[in-house]
Amino acid sequence: MAVDQMNILSLLGMDDDVVEVSAKEKAKKTESNKKTAPAANNNSNNKNQGDKLEVNTETIIRHEGINIPITAYFSEQELTEGILKDDGKPTPITEEDIRERMETQVVFIGEESVPFGPCIELLPDYTVVVFSKKKNMVMAIPSARKKGASTSVCRKNEVTAPAVASFLHEKIPFSILLEFMKVAYHYAKYNMEVHGDIFWNVEEQKYELIIPEQKVTRVNCYDFVHDCMEIMERDLVKKCEIHSHHFMQTFPSPTDDADEKREKLVYCIIGDFGNPLYPNLYTRTYKDGEYITLDSKDVFYVDMDLSVSMDALNNVKEGLPYDLPQVHINGPGNMYEIVVEVDYYNPFYQDFHINKYTNVFTGNVDYVAMDKAKSYYSSLLGIDESKVRIVRFEEIV
Question: What is the value of pTM for the model shown?
């Protein structure tokens, strides 16, 4: 098993050697337990995205559990008259103005002038700025856009970090991970991905999982919508984004790479549900222009006895008793199965043996081409592409 993914059993201090089977074979074994997927639902519920932005000199910006006077970022003249733009005309302060200054500036707050920022995780197009007129408060919330799965498994641009991400208040309880796994297993019955966000509750000093409104397919989950006013009212701070690859491998896809470039967040993928034992988990973060692979044991901790953990781990495979109203199944996506034969050198026998591998590839046809499949296996096994022969390559209907 690759060093940068971990079987769930490893979090419990148990042996993580696993035997992988194809997603198609797993689907056949569980066919009798499958539910019929509901019809696609493209209707979005109206979420409370806050009041119209009307800031003044008394407005507070709430971030990471800290109150920052808006005057730390804007002058009194800018707050009362507006910001001078390129045309020389003042315009009222916008949500984007607030996001940009929070992302780029260091400010000093309090009598002791404590430095704060820059909030480098607040990237353009990946941040929702919400305003509460009642509280006269602004909150900037990091937001994901789209997750996906594909054949991309070569993490040449990633480095490994041995310790827990410093921006976490504490490790995330295993019970939170189990809570998401229950949702993930439920939508795996439909061969669908699903996404969740793990927030730190500042007042209660604990983590909690929220499944946002979203659209899901076999290979993507996207259009995530939170009730931003609820996040503000409850003073929640996002710390982790987690999504499932159901029966596919846990390695991040190009879609994931494009989305997961906000710093001070943990990104998790759980997948390989076809594993006859338990699924695998991939954990990373992003800093200074590169992905950093994290040891999942440094992110999660087991908050229950081993016997209880094993019972809970087995129970999550049953999924939920019902479909979540905020998760809209939106079509099958593209999924392919490939069977290859590989001349693989076995150092134990000091000889070459023909091994047959079955796997599932996802993505667009131009990306999941046969040459990509050969490249995948040659990279995975560390062998030349000439040793890889395509036996079958077909779309799964």
Answer: 0.73
Stretches where the chain sits below pLDDT 70 are: 1-4, 12-48, 149-166, 276, 331-374, 376-383, 387-397
| Same-domain pairing of 96 and 243 | no
Rounded Cα distance between 376 and 253, Å, is: 13
What is the model's pLDDT at position 209?
97
pLDDT at 274: 80
User: For residue 114, what are the β-bridge partners?
Assistant: 109
Which of helix, strand or coil describes residue 173?
strand
Q: Please check whether residue 252 is in contact with residue 269, taking contact to mean a CB–CB distance below 8 angstroms.
A: yes
Has residue 256 been placed in a domain? yes
Angle between helix axes 306-315 and 174-188 (nearest 10 degrees) is 20
Whether residue 179 contacts residue 197, with contact meaning beta carbons closer than 8 Å, is answered with: no
Rounded distance between C-alpha atoms, residue 290 and residue 81, angstroms: 41
Domain count, the chain: 3
Q: Is the peptide bond before 118 cis (omega within 30 degrees of 0)?
A: yes
Distance from C-alpha of 181 to C-alpha of 290, rounded to nearest angstrom: 28
| DSSP tally for the chain: helices H, then strands E | 9, 25
Length of the chain: 397
Q: What is the CATH number of the domain that holds 350?
A: 3.10.20
- Residue with tokens 């060093």, as numbered in its chain: 3
User: Which pLDDT score is estimated for 48?
Assistant: 61
Angstrom distance (rounded) from CA 388 to CA 373: 9
Buried b (16+ CB within 10 A) or exposed e, 271-289: bbbbbebbbbbbbbbbeee
Check residue 312 and give its pLDDT. 85
Q: What is the pLDDT of residue 364?
A: 38
Q: Report how far residue 334's alpha carbon sits from residue 149's, in angstroms, rounded to the nearest whole number.
A: 10
Tokens of 171: 């490790």
State whether 29 and 115 are in the same domain: no
Structure tokens at 79: 């707050």
Query: Do residue 138 and residue 149 come from a single domain?
Result: no
Query: Nearest 5 degrees, angle CA 375-CA 6-CA 300?
Result: 140
Task: In whole angstroms, give the CA distance from residue 13 to residue 2.
Answer: 17
Q: Which two three-digit tokens encode residue 276?
A: 């006859």
